[in-house]
Design a protein that fits this description.
This protein is mainly α. It has a domain of about 60 residues: AF1531-like domain (DNA polymerase, domain 1, Orthogonal Bundle), CATH 1.10.150.280. The protein contains four helices and two strands; from the N terminus they run αβαααβ. The chain has a two-stranded parallel sheet. The radius of gyration is 21 Å and the shape is rod-shaped. It comes from marine gamma proteobacterium HTCC2143.
Length: about 90
C-alpha cells in the first residue's frame, strides 16, 4: 500500500511539466516602423529605455539597413541581438 501511494505521489509531482504549455513565441517586429512600446513588448531583454533608444537612433540616423546595425544603439549588444534576430524585420 505504501508503495502505491509513493508511486501516485511521484506521478502527481512529475506530471505538471509534462502538461506545461510552450512559452509564447514573439511575433516578428519591424525595427524601422515599430514604436517604443511595441519594441519593448516584442523584443526579449528590451525594456522601455532600450526601446526608446532604438527609436531615437532611428530618428537620428534613418532606418536600419541591417539587423546588425542595431548593435550601434547603446545597450544593445551581440547577445541581445542573437536572442531576437529571428523576429527582427527591416521591412
Amino acid at each position: 500500500m505504501r508503495l502505491i501511494r509513493y508511486i501516485c505521489l511521484s506521478l502527481c509531482l512529475l506530471s505538471p511539466p509534462l502538461f506545461a504549455e510552450d512559452p509564447p513565441v514573439s511575433s516578428p517586429v519591424n525595427i524601422n516602423t515599430a514604436d517604443a512600446a511595441t519594441l519593448s513588448a516584442s523584443l526579449k531583454g528590451v525594456g522601455s529605455s532600450k526601446a526608446q533608444a532604438i527609436v531615437t537612433y532611428r530618428d537620428n540616423y534613418g532606418p536600419f539597413k541591417s539587423v546588425e546595425e542595431l548593435t550601434a544603439v547603446r545597450g544593445i549588444g551581440d547577445s541581445l541581438l542573437a536572442k531576437n534576430k529571428d523576429i527582427i524585420l527591416l521591412e
